[in-house]
Amino acid sequence: MLIRIYPENPNEREIEKVVQFLRDGGLIVYPTDTIYGLGCDIFNTRAVEKICRYKNIDPRKANLSFICYDLSNISEYAKVDNNTFKLMKKNLPGPFTFILNGNSNLPKLFRNKKTVGIRVPDNNIIRELVRGLGNPILSTSVRDDDDEIQEYFTDPELIHERYENIADVVINGGFGTLDPSTVVDCTGDEPVIVRQGKGELIL
C-alpha cells in the first residue's frame, strides 16, 4: 500500500492508519531527513526478525538504529551522560545517528548488544509515527551498497514498486536523498565521527 503524507502537516488519520500497521507487526517504508528507511515497532520480535532476514543480518549483532520522537525517552534505552546529552540536544532533530551504550530496557532481541544507534530525524512524518506508536521505530536504510539504480531509493513510487512485497505500507513523503546520516560514536570519552554523511556536527 502506498500512502501519501505531507511532511509539513502530516494528516492525523493517515498517521494513525500507519501506526495501526506497526501495532499489528507490519513493516513500513518511511521518509527521513536522509535516505528512506525500512522499519517496524522495536518491541515486535517477529517484525524485527523479518527485516533482519530481508537484509540478511543477525539482529543480535547488527548495528540497527532506533528512531525516537525527541530526547525525552532516550534514557529509557541508553546510558547518556551530560556531555553527550548536550551534544545531541545541539544537533537533533537532524541527520545524525548517535551510538550510545545500551541499557537493560532494550528489546529482548538486542540485549546482547552493548550499544544502540539513536536517531531523531528532522522529518515530521516519521516523528509523528513514533509519537503515535508510543515507542521507538526500528530504522534501517532501504538502500544497499551494491544497488546501483539510485532512483529506486529516492522516488517513493519506485520504492513502492520494489518493496510492495516486503513492506505493508510505503509512505510517499516526497523525494528522498542518497546521503546517509552522520554516525557519531559516543561510547568513549570523546565523541568520534565514524561516518561522515549529511550534516555537520556542532560540538
Structure explained in plain terms:
By secondary structure, the chain is an alpha/beta fold. It has a single domain, classed as DHBP synthase (Alpha-Beta Complex). The chain has helices spanning 12-23, 45-55, 82-91, 124-133, 156-163, and strands at 2-4, 28-30, 37-39, 65-67, 78-79, 96-102, 115-119, 137-141, 169-172, 182-185, 192-195. Strands 1, 2, 3, 4, 5, 6, 7, 8, 9, 10 and 11 form an eleven-stranded mixed beta sheet that branches. A hairpin with a 6-residue loop joins strand 10 (182-185) and strand 11. Helix 1 crosses helix 4 (124-133). The longest helix has 12 residues, at 12-23. The mean pLDDT is 91.
**Main β sheet profile:** 11 strands, mixed
Helical stretch count?
Answer: 5
CATH hierarchy: architecture = Alpha-Beta Complex
Q: Roughly what fraction of the amino acids lie in strands?
A: 15-25%
| DSSP summary, beta strand count | 11
Helix content: 25-40%
Sum this structure up briefly:
The chain is α/β, with parallel strands linked by helices and 203 residues long.
